Amino acid sequence: MNAPAAPAERIRSARFRAEREAGWKRLDDLVRRAEKRGAKSLGYEEALELAGLYRQAMNALSVARAISMDKALLTYLDALCARAYLVVYAPQESLGGLFTRLMTRGIPQAVRRSGWPLLIGFLAMALGGLLGAVLYDLDRSWFYTFVPGSLADGRTPEASAEYLRSTLFDGGGGHDELSTFATFLFSHNTQVAILTFSLGVFFTLPSFLLTFYNGLLLGAFWRMFDEKGLGYDLTGWLSIHGVTELAAICIACAGGAQLGLAMLLPGDLTRREALRRRGRDAVKLMLLAALMLVAAAVLEGFFRQTVTSTETRLAIGWGIGALWAAWLLLAGRDRAPQGAPA
Amino acid sequence: MKTYTATGVPLWEAKNLIRHTPPESVPITFRLSSIGARFGAQLLDLTFTYGGVFLLIILVAWAGIFSWNGLITFYALITFFMRVPYYILSEMVWNGRTLGKRILGIRVISLDGRRLTPHQITARNLMKEVEVFLPMGTLMGGAGLGWVLGLILAAWMLATVLVPVFNRKKQRLGDMVAGTIVVDNPKPQLLPDLSVQAAAMGYEFRTEHLAIYGRYELQMLESILRAPPKTPEARKHVSEVAQTIRRRIGYDEKLPEHREWDFLMEFYRQQREFLESRNLFGDTREDKFHTAKGPDKRR
């Protein structure tokens, strides 16, 4: 039934290939150029050609799978299509546009969607603070348990009120380490925030604990100053950057809680799918936390040492806190809320 | 009727391949990157970022712009921007490739077949902090930890490091959160069509000769024919193949040694034409067991 053809005459799949080979080579060419110099290096005509040739190659792959048994051809087309796919479906957002969209809509909307996780974050910090203060009252040696020596920097329960006051107001006169200390705190805090966020995937607990521990530290610290009658001044000293910074850590914790809740309570979804969905808001919370940490570092660097009146410190700290809140609560409300935007 | 695995790739080549369905709905195949390549890319990236920071610091220190404290501040800020933001920006600009990945020819793609979104890139790189930087930091500065805490940390680190080893798609935790995988950059290479190459005349195979083998054997023969023998052993191997085929299909002419290659070439051409035409009529012959029905008789 299948009389052998003369050798010169090509079999069907070979003809199929011969007819299209030039197009594939051209596509390969364009793809290589786009890969090397970016899709912008292609002209308008060439970009159009690329899209057309890509679809044709995809079509050819589909047909070849059905009619050809030439493995080399199938492998080639597969790889060619994959490569062209990666050029055609490359991210097209500009970094600037991305940033604007994130700031005007993405982050504020994500924050407003994450009520419960945010509650977890702030609650962890508050409970920690409360417990820290109470434990300090019961037994001062708790202080040494909570606060690592490098962080305390001589500010211990034994220190005199004058010394403690000087750490708040002198801005480090003769205290050269203080600016270094500020930077240390910044990189320390970023790491704490990132850890708090990413450990959340282990069922929220590590995030909660880390934030709780931060609260403990804060509570014990505050109570120690308060005991010496410096509670108000410490509040001012902390407020100037702390409102932003501590909120950032709570928000990072909320991001972690988003991930953890996806693992704990996936609902009808598989855990992986739940993680993927909740991850959208979680990542935005973390970006917000990082942004706030950078802002806090700037505040700390510029104002903490130069502004020395407690009232101004309070005003600046909480004023900026109010600005954050206003941005997060008001921005991106222009349209009716829709499903999670990209 | 074909033996396909869950990834939709034929069983004999399923290992490490993944079928990816772009919006055009024609599945394309990617090869998952080896753990070694990913580890190498990570090492390269670490070298570049920290090496860059180191050079910059030396340069700044040498230029004497900052005091010692200023230098430390500068270092803290620079390392902050060289960690997660470096990976996010480079993967965003180069479509899933950092410098290290570019050098080793691997890249990140989205599992859903769509383009890689900024969200995915951010998510997978934020998790890198736990999976890469934290274990690294602990390894370098963990001497002061108590042994219980040390043991817990070690176990947890080991677990996160082993996650990509023990799942089929080799995803690390960040990949799972973001829905991404890391694949080898596809390298298209067009080999000549064997059926077009001039073959010697004089071999006529009849239907009963061609009805023996299936697609699998045909493609094996193709791979043999694509590497012409250079050594005496390879020649002997080819000769064995030719004689086996001649015996198996019951081809009754004598086959002298110098004509074996031509015989194989011509057999390949006619066998392919035959199988492709049978395939068009819906008679797909996957391998030489195509006459025996029932999946358990397959290889």
How would you characterize this protein structure?
The complex is a heterodimer of chains A (342) and B (299). Chain A is mostly helical and 342 residues long. Helices cover 77% and strands 0% of the residues of chain A. Chain A is elongated and about 100 Å long. The relative contact order of chain A is 0.10. In chain B, strand 1 and strand 2 (28-31) form a beta hairpin. Chain B folds into two domains: 32-184, no CATH class; 207-297, no CATH class. Chain B has 299 residues and is mainly α. The chains are: A mainly alpha (342), B mainly alpha (299). Chains A and B meet through helix 1, helix 2, helix 3, helix 9 and helix 12 of A and strand 2, helix 2, helix 3, helix 5 and helix 7 of B.
What distance lies between the first and last C-alpha atoms of chain A, to the nearest angstrom? 58 Å
Q: Give a quick account of the main beta sheet of chain B: strands, pairing sense, barrel closure.
A: 2 strands, antiparallel
State the helix count of chain B: 11
Structural class of chain B: mainly alpha
What is the element string of chain A, with H for helices and E for strands?
Answer: HHHHHHHHHHHHH
Main pleated sheet of chain A: none
Radius of gyration of chain A: 30 Å
Average pLDDT for all residues of chain B: 81
- The helix content of chain A, as a percent range, equals over 70%
Largest interface: A-B, 70 and 76 residues
Q: Report the β-strand fraction of chain A as a percent range.
A: under 5%
Supply the helix-strand structural class of chain A: mainly alpha
List the helices and strands and how they pair.
The complex is a heterodimer of chains A (342) and B (299).
Chain A: H1 12-37, H2 44-67, H3 71-88, H4 95-113, H5 115-138, H6 142-146, H7 149-152, H8 161-169, H9 177-199, H10 205-227, H11 231-264, H12 271-304, H13 310-330
Chain B: E1 17-20, E2 28-31, H1 35-63, H2 68-82, H3 84-93, H4 99-104, E3 106-110, H5 118-141, H6 147-162, H7 173-178, E4 180-184, H8 207-210, H9 215-225, H10 232-249, H11 260-280
Antiparallel strand pairs in B: 1-2, 3-4
Helix pairs in contact in B: 1-2, 3-5, 5-6, 9-11, 10-11
